[in-house]
Amino acid sequence: MNTVIDLKGVVAVLGSFPALAGVDLSVARGEIVLLQGPNGAGKTSLLRVCAGLLPIERGSGTILGIDVASQREDIRSRVGFLGHANGLYLDLTVTQNMKFWAATVGASDAEVDAAMARMRVDGRLAHVRTAQLSAGQRRRTALASLIVRRAEIWLLDEPHAGLDAAGRDEIDHVLREAVGAGATVVLASHESERASELAHRIVTIDGGGAQ
Known about the structure:
alpha/beta; 6-stranded mixed beta sheet; 10 strands; transport; ATP binding; ATP-binding; nucleotide-binding
């Protein structure tokens, strides 16, 4: 098994609040793993640790073989995290957002065009500021940015939120395509029935720990 996420006894703190209390998590390349649990259980914090965005206080682990405690910047260059804000610059157009992210990894204009076409944010939408897009269009733009950034692990916090049934179906199809192309997906979702059908495995987060 090619393990891309390997966390052992990870403790993380938000302010004075213990967000994660000794989490163990192992994810293999090509898996789709669903994190489920009540609000405040630590799902988002775990995604942020995996993305190199939240430091750990204790424990150890690697993401893509990179040390999660000391090399968070290196982790951030190889994974993609999408939270509720979608990681977009709202004052930029769709194309400008894509070209910004493309420049961070040296992606070509052809890669940008292909990602935008795949997520149906090309044509007229390409020149629209992301602040003016619908929720579904923003989510598609954000997923296009992960394609452009060549993210090896997709870390998604509530990717189905605010979308209609057709939009949720499209997200699921894109995630399966990403895994087929070699990516790994870890998502937190309140769409438990839908997400459990999508996921290969479910990990329950409760009280800052994983089961």
